[in-house]
Specification:
The structure holds 2 protein chains of 2 kinds.
Chain A lengths: L1 H6 L2 H51 L8 H10 L1 H35 L1 H16 L6 H8 L3 H25 L3 H9 L4 H39 L4 H10 L3 H32 L6 H8 L1
Chain B lengths: L23 E5 L6 H9 L10 E2 L2 E2 L8 E4 L11 H5 L1 H5 L5 H13 L15 H13 L5 E5 L7 H18 L2 E5 L3 H7 L2 E5 L6 E6 L14 H15 L2 H4 L3
Parallel strand pairs in B: 1-6, 1-7, 4-5, 5-6
Antiparallel strand pairs in B: 2-3, 7-8
Helix pairs in contact in B: 7-8
Classes of the chains: A mainly alpha, B alpha/beta.
Chain lengths: 292, 248
């Protein structure tokens, strides 16, 4: 190859090379575009198939058990006002619960990450409390906090607390031991180690915790509404059930699902923005993602 | 400069040698002989059971900020900081003004051959380049001593040879006192003024060997008679002991 290249003029070689590279590039681009098209097509196909399946199943059963997609959609439009009113209630509970739960989770996690002793004392209790089905505590919180916002926010906070606790501890702890030696050799204070090493290292973990936390908070708020409420989407589902309004139940479930996805996506955007802004998310987190 | 008298009994014992100002001294020995431990003792990160280390006339009783520069086998750069920000980390930790060190940082970055990479993130750098940034970070605050723990051990042979030259250039420009731990006796011979050969655990000083090669060192010297003789001698010193008694 080098002999042939020597015979040709360098310029010609360069030209050939450029053309070859360009051709390879555009071929790759074309292939990628085609792959994306196939992928999206397949996704739409799955969705349509599910709708058809749903429709056929609804024909075979009573609308009280399984209303068809069209009647659910109609119901969704007809009850839109009612659904939105309750949506705001549920969103408020999720927001408050998630904010409180994640703030406390990050705070306690930071404290535990800084003290081996504290962690060793609390470890069994944290593990045990994670095993407690938090939803089962809802009736208890109603007893204690009444029927208002209190029990719903508390349950949402309690459930979203744990992923943040865990991720904060892991993120702040799992720093390179050599980096700790480096900081020690420089005589860094523990505050400096926290701000310059642990926090930037832990932030991606905390952001992941927030994404899990918002989903948990949603589950918590809806379950709490099941138990107590006359307001909110969870309450609306219970009412619809009482009235044998299966179509409304389906409509609310769809709204809840879409809301959950939107909340998750918002945090996903926040995460991406934060990681890009602070140059985080390279190495460490990637490897953790592939582990998980 | 150092005086390690009667060390503890486990990792190291009866280690005693001194390092002169501006000298390049290597520590070699079989793996697990405690050469890395010795390095951390000098840095003050590892406590000594018995005996003492004197750095600059004062006994070492803990990490002294600003006096010891550490270079690890890994570069240990913070992935979210650019090369320049990594290099200036010690300055931030000491609470000094960053701006007054930017010029020195740039000079050192040029010296190790990282010109143009000051604003790059470590992930964009090769292993050898990352290690060069780590060397700059250890030099930025003018430490009294540079302690290097197998800094090129993770690099391929070619990169390692190149890094040896970079380090010699840095040493000639800054005249830092360097204590260099390696398991590669040729690397030790090529770089050092003196080579301290340690025995197996618990490590003691087997011999301190003067390197007869002139300065500045060139890659050609690696094939000189003096070098080969020296390498052979170091090899023999490493091979004495219980392990060598077993026929190969």
């Amino acid at each position: 190859m080098s002999e042939r290249a020597a015979e040709m003029s360098p310029l010609a070689v360069a030209d050939d090379l450029h053309q070859a590279i360009d051709a390879a590039r555009s071929a790759r681009r074309r292939r990628r575009r085609r792959d994306a098209l196939v992928l999206n097509g397949a996704r739409v196909a799955v969705f349509v198939a599910a709708l058809i399946l749903w429709y056929l199943a609804s024909l075979a059963t009573s609308p009280l058990i399984l209303p068809g997609p069209v009647s659910v959609a109609t119901q969704l439009v007809r009850s839109w006002g009612l659904i939105v009113t309750n949506l705001w209630v549920t969103l408020g509970e999720i927001g408050l619960g998630f904010a409180a739960g994640s703030a406390i989770g990050i705070f306690v996690g930071t404290a535990i990450a800084h003290s081996r002793r504290l962690e060793r004392i609390l470890r069994p209790y944290i593990a045990t409390s994670q095993a407690v089905p938090k939803a089962a505590l809802a009736p208890l919180f109603v007893l204690w906090l009444g029927f208002g916002l209190g029990p719903k926010v508390t349950i949402a906070a309690l459930i979203s607390f744990f992923p943040l606790l865990e991720n904060t501890i892991v993120g702040l702890r799992r720093v390179d031991p050599d980096a700790l030696k480096l900081f020690a050799s420089l005589g860094a204070s523990s505050w400096q180690v926290f701000v310059k090493l642990r926090l930037p290292h832990g932030l991606p973990y905390i952001l992941t915790g927030l994404k899990v936390g918002i989903v948990f908070a949603t589950v918590g708020a809806v379950i709490a509404e099941f138990v107590t409420s006359n307001k909110g989407l969870g309450a609306l589902i219970m009412q619809a059930q009482g009235n044998f309004d299966t179509r409304l139940m389906f409509a609310v479930i769809i709204v809840l699902t879409v809301m959950g996805v939107i909340l998750y996506e918002i945090l996903q955007l926040v995460e991406r923005w934060a990681l890009r802004t602070w140059n985080l998310g390279e190495g460490e987190i990637d490897s953790r993602r592939t582990e998980a | 400069m150092f005086d390690l008298a009667e060390g503890g009994t486990y990792a190291l014992r009866d280690v005693s040698f001194d390092v002169r100002e501006g000298e390049f001294v290597s520590l070699i020995g079989p793996s697990g002989c405690g050469k890395t431990t010795l390095l951390y003792c000098i840095s003050g990160l590892e406590p000594i059971v018995k005996g003492g280390i004197v750095l600059d006339g004062r006994p070492v009783d803990g990490p002294r900020s600003g006096e010891v520069g550490l270079v690890f086998q890994k570069a240990v750069l913070l992935s979210w900081r650019t090369v320049l920000d990594n290099v200036l980390l010690p300055i931030e930790v000491f609470g000094r003004s960053r701006t007054s060190y930017v010029r020195r940082a740039t000079e050192l970055i040029d010296l190790v051959g990282l010109t143009g990479f000051a604003d790059s993130l470590p992930s964009k750098l090769s292993g050898g380049m990352q290690q060069r940034a780590a060397i700059v970070r250890s030099l930025i605050f003018e430490p009294r001593v540079l302690l290097m723990d197998e800094p090129f051990g993770a690099l391929d042979a070619q990169t390692r040879e190149h890094m040896n030259l970079v380090l010699l250039r840095v040493w000639e420009a800054t005249r830092k006192t360097i204590v260099f731990v390696t398991h590669d006796l040729e690397e030790a011979a090529f770089l050092s003024d003196r080579v301290v050969v340690l025995t197996e655990r618990p490590g003691t000083v087997r011999e301190i060997v003067e390197v007869p090669l002139p300065r500045p060192r060139t890659l050609e010297m690696r094939y000189s008679e003096d070098f080969v003789r020296l390498a052979r001698r170091l090899r023999r010193l490493l091979d004495v002991g219980p392990a060598a008694a077993v026929p190969a």
